[in-house]
Design a protein that fits this description.
The protein has about 140 residues and is α+β, with helices and mostly antiparallel strands. It is built from five helices and five strands. The strands form two sheets. Strands 2-1-3 form a three-stranded antiparallel β-sheet, covered by helices on one side. Strand 1 and strand 2 form a beta hairpin. It starts with 8 loop residues before the first helix and ends in a 24-residue tail after the last helix.
Length: about 140
């Protein structure tokens, strides 16, 4: 593959070396309504249509090739605190991982209510992820 301008590509899907990453690619353009897809390979700039997509990755890589979590310890603590009652306590508590939070975000982006709410409003703050009610099994991806 020939890439003239790599921009932040090398920090998400490095050109050299061995790496593993996942990314959410989404678009809300003039030609296409909101859409999202998950990938583990470098996405095409116009993966959905002629409107450019944006990507949010699970990890990023620094200049020396070290993997850095894009989901912070603070976010992990917020999810764990918010879902404490549903995941249990002590040794029997289910663990919420940063990867589970990543998958949760993907699920929320597919939620029809979330999509309808973001379509109806132009308020940028309304596009932030909100904690959602679950069926009593904790957040998606929580490990027993």
């Amino acid at each position: 593959m020939l890439t003239h301008r790599t921009y932040q590509q090398d920090s998400i899907f490095p050109i050299d070396g061995t790496w593993e990453n996942k990314a959410l690619c989404f678009v809300a353009g003039n030609r296409l309504g909101f859409a999202v897809v998950a990938t583990c390979v470098l996405p095409n700039y116009a993966v959905f249509s002629l409107d450019p997509s944006q990507s949010a990755s699970l990890y990023r890589y620094d200049e020396t090739g070290n993997r850095v979590d894009n989901i912070t310890d603070w976010a992990l603590k917020q999810f764990t605190t918010h879902y404490a009652e549903e995941i249990g306590k002590g040794k029997s508590a289910r663990k919420i991982s940063k990867e589970a939070i990543f998958h949760y975000c993907y699920a929320v982006l597919h939620d029809p209510l979330y999509r309808e709410n973001t379509r109806q409003t132009s308020n940028a703050n309304s596009r932030a992820f909100r904690f959602t009610k679950t069926s009593g099994n904790g957040p998606p991806g929580a490990k027993p």
